[in-house]
Fold:
Amino acid sequence: MALIPLEDARAYVLEACRTLAPVSMPLAQALGRVTAVAVVSEEAVPPFDNSAMDGFAVRAADTATAPVSLAVVATLAAGEAPSAEVGPGQAVRIMTGAPLPPGADAVIMVEQTAPGHDGASVEIRMVVAPGTACRRTGDDLAAGDVVAAAGVVLSAGHLGVLASVGVTDVTVFPPARVGVLSTGDELVTGSGPLRPGQIRDSNRPTLCALVNQAGCQAVDLGTVVDDEAAITEAFTAAASTCDAVVTSGGVSMGDFDLVKVVLDRLGDMRWMQLAIKPAKPFAFGVVGTTPVFGLPGNPVSSMVSFELLARPALRKMTGFPSSAWRRPAVAAVADEDLDRRPDGKTHFVRVVATVGDDGRHHVRSAGGQGSHHLSAMAAANALAVLDLGGGGVAAGASVPVLLLEAP
Ligand code: AMP
Ligand code: MG
Structure:
């Protein structure tokens, strides 16, 4: 079977995965969600002229002859409506955020004042221009301004600005609910004793975490043994209850065929051998209308396969803009030789990336590069991309790197 270029497989997968229909959700649930429509403010922020300081609201013209004594006619706290007007020769004691009283056009910070000897006046020690320490209506947002455009990934700051204009619910793309299923008779969950030939299921917790980290919602569907009826039931239930299914194991050439047999019967699957290392075997298709990603069983392979193929598609389904489907790519300096065999595949080498004093990314191997070396994958924060042809990268040379986490 001819090896399929990664780009072809990814394009095929992305084409088949549709963005979910938008929903309305409360602001408190919307962190990290992507806006489906622009949010326009119906209000101005600040909603009224107010003081930026604790101090005294004055007529700026009265300060021209500072130091000057002004009569204090009222005190205004945040949350109060003005009760008095500031006339010539007068001041109102004002707190930060309190509305600017009529007549006043500037605020003197309290540090530039002193209490008058009569207890009813204040000495102003500073000349100020009109507008000093005043926050004007709408100088953050005007009514009609776009608060968040469509396609924005909502941050903590966005939630605050939406709340500041009275928005309580937003129309966003929901996180894709992604069922995660492990297959194989050898798998054991948890800490129980291992019988000969058994191993622990490490892919499921990893893949659930990767799904959640991708901005989607993992649904842990457990493990399923290599039994036709059990596999059929598991995939049927998964496809009908989830937006997508990620499974690991049972997709490689030498496998016990049951996952293949069942998925071929339930859906329209394509079984691929990709021109990459690790993660050569990959299956993708739809069961009903639910995309199913068949990742290889080897722990490192399943992670790399998820990163390169499932993650972009799941992020597309979840409404992320296409610029955010893939991990960021940077050019890094190889701080040591990164070796490879010329085998017609693109190699994704698990590396530790750091930012050097020169401001550039630098990478070193994270350890063992076997597809079972999960601890090296765990130590890695990036994948160095050694392209199809030729040998490795010599120390000091530039190498393209996918950043899995910020170094
Ligand atoms: P398979 O793709 O089913 O042939 O599995 C390839 C290798 O990955 C085998 O060594 C399996 O035991 C291992 N493997 C499969 N599924 C998992 C899993 N969920 N956790 C850890 N290792 C697994
Ligand atoms: Mg298996």
Remarks:
- The chain has seven helices and 27 strands.
- Residues 23-44+142-173 form a domain with the Molybdopterin biosynthesis moea protein, domain 2 fold (CATH 3.90.105.10).
- The first strand starts at residue 23 and ends at 26.
- The radius of gyration is 31 Å.
